[in-house]
Amino acid sequence: MPLDTDAPPRPTLRRPVLRTLRLGFVPLTDAAPLLVAQELGLFDAVGLRVALTAEPSWAALRDKLAFGALDAAHMLGPMPIALAAGLTGVKAQVTVAAGLGANGNTITISNALVQELGRLARPLGAASFAALVRRRAAQGRRPLTLAVVFPFSSHNYLLRHWLAEGGLDPDRDLRLTVVPPPMVAQRLADGAIDGFCAGEPWGSHAAALGAGRIALSTGDIWPNHPEKVLAFAADYATRDPESATACTAAVIAAARWLDEPANQAEAVNILRRRAFPRLDRAEIAAAFEGMAEGLPLDAPLRFHNATLPRREQAAWFLRQMRRWGHVPAAVSDSAALAPWRQDIWRAAAARLHEAEPPAPSPPPSSPLGDSPEHA
Amino acid sequence: MLRVLLVDSDPDRAAEVEAGLAATGCTVVAIAAGTEELTRHVRDTGAEVIVCGLDDPSRDELEGMRALHRDEPRPVVLFTEKAEPEQIEAALAAGVSAYVVEGMAPARVRPVIEVAIRRFRAHQALREELAEARQGLEDRKLVDRAKALLMQRHRLTEPEAYKRLRRMAMDRGLRIAAMAGLVLDKN
Fold first, then answer.
1. Which of A80, A137, A291, B157 has the fewest Cβ atoms nearer than 10 Å?
2. Cβ-Cβ contacts under 8 Å for A330 (sequence gap 6 or more)
3. B78: which chain A residues are within 8 Å (Cβ-Cβ)?
């Protein structure tokens, strides 16, 4: 089906509006497919009424999905694994029906660190950063503190992978902490953290405030890595497969619309209105333009080719979780990855005449084969 | 008296929750607005348990303290003002400790906190098992490296190297991993 860029593709109306689907998101640029689907009327077009709510934290969003206060949510890729394994005491089996995007996070470091490095060549190499950490240790200075947005996040595992690539032990040579995305720029400016890995627009925001510089993006670590997912509550996909499929179709249509360059300006308007009313337009636009601090990124935030949920890609996150001792050995791969299903995506894609996206780039390999490597 | 750190970005609600907690025999040692660094705050106040709103923006930071730091994490009890009873049941079943403060009898608050603490301890035990499993892996790696060194140095087969390492450990009354560490350190 040829894509008309002036009007969003409208999945065919299948039935009158029946019920409201409660959908949660955390205000980040990569929630765009959900916000766009609602603002462009794509949910209406598939006969779904959606109550889209901004959630204040990943923990709150997860709990609400686990105990039935939400039907579906924008989720960090490793979260369904953590939920299946009951890693923070909360156990639930969610269904990953679609990917919401690829890439889109930055690693931003303080001005003081940039100064210590001497020169910041983006993407910053793991070896240069590791050398800086070792130099500081040799001088007897305090270890650096880096923030990620949630323990079970692509941010945490991609950052750890990058640190380990430089020969650092992220649990011994540095201090990793969690800071909610809207607070990272302020904490960096205050000196409470030395850097962070967070989704856009927060890296661009910190840079615009002069709090730090973008050193690399997570796409520099694993080009086109899967980022957020669309997850349905435990029994939702089996109880109401029609709504799950319709919702997924609207999200695929939104992702397709988002990757059309002609739609960028409107996408920025929607995000600003719905998620970031206090930020400058340019800070929000950067991710959509594939830029960071005015320079193009090699692997920018993309939506359209990332919608098919791929278990083999999620398996990389599971391997990292095992590597760092975050998942007990008793949890099998099949149980941890069971949330990833392609049947809903395929049913939704068929309605849109959507072709299967090209195979993504393979995940980065680690010298030790991702085997568990330390206590 | 249970020492509680209350995390709430809304000062009015915090005062109400504090009164509710005091009525159940808890001492609120500090109220954090969630904008300061929580790890330090928890350490400084000596809190035994953290009470936080389900929708407070600090929740991910609290999760991070539990998952990323090895420094004495504390149980976290959540409160929510507007959950339906069946949602609270489901939350408790899923492992979330949530309770309604508004309109909840003080007598019911304390048991919820106690359940949360028990659950937390059980979870901590699980984490310690994990840490032990990790230590086992680390030990095995040490032993493998020491074996490789002995094999190379004394032209031994793998089982011979292992036997020698085991004998050295027994002679000195050491665990085999500790002996492996010594062998590697000396060479």
1. B157
2. none
3. 63
What are the chain B neighbours of A171 within 8 Å (beta carbons)? 70
Is CATH 3.40.190.10 the right assignment for the domain spanning A20-103+225-259+302-352?
Answer: yes
Q: Which secondary-structure segment (H or E) carries A303?
A: none
Q: What's the CATH number of domain A105-221, 3.40.470.10, 3.40.640.10, 3.40.190.10, 3.40.50.1100?
A: 3.40.190.10
Q: How far is CA A113 from each of CA A46, A108, A120, A194, B56, rounded to the nearest angstrom? A: 50, 10, 10, 7, 31
Q: Which residues of B touch A (CB under 8 A)?
A: 35, 37, 39, 54-70, 78, 83, 86-87, 90-91, 93-96, 98, 119-120, 123, 126, 129-131, 133-135, 137-138, 141
Of the listed ranges A149-153, A253-257, B109-113, the least confidently predicted one is B109-113
Q: Rounded to whole angstroms, how far apart are CA atoms B140 and B146?
A: 10
ipTM of the complex: 0.85
- Shortest CA gap B167–chain A (Å): 26
Tokens of B38: 């929580």
Dist CA A108 CA B144 (whole Å): 39
Q: How many CB atoms lie within 10 A of CB B11?
A: 9
Query: Which of A169, A177, A178 is the mutation pick for testing B, counting most B CBs within 10 A?
Result: A178
